[in-house]
Amino acid sequence: xxxxxxxxxxxRRLRVRNKLRAMANGRARLSVHRSNKNISVQLIDDARGVxxxxxxxxEKDLGLxxxxxxxxxxxxxxxxxxxxxxxxVEECYFDRGGFLFHGKIKALADAAREGGLKF
Length: 119
Description:
Layout lengths: L4 H18 L5 E7 L4 E7 L4 E7 L13 H18 L4 E4 L8 H11 L5
Parallel strand pairs: 1-4
Antiparallel strand pairs: 1-2, 2-3
Helix pairs in contact: 2-3
């Protein structure tokens, strides 16, 4: 009966994704991935299967390579909001994956909202 952390993560991820798919209505999806060393986010149009915009701490021009802190997540959130506006996206759904909505994920979401994205 005991599930591993990975199995619980994958179950949470599928649950979140299926709820988003049920109420998508053609909106883009803001997908977040957090590793131990970096954090990345993509704005995805699932209807066409295309990434509209992306931002990551791996990008050298943002100056956050190898940083996975709350401050870095906030900067990534602001960057994705700016890039989404350039791509013409104002509304999206926030796909946190299997990650819990606190700390770095919450900081990224708050910064994206302050940058003008609505979700």
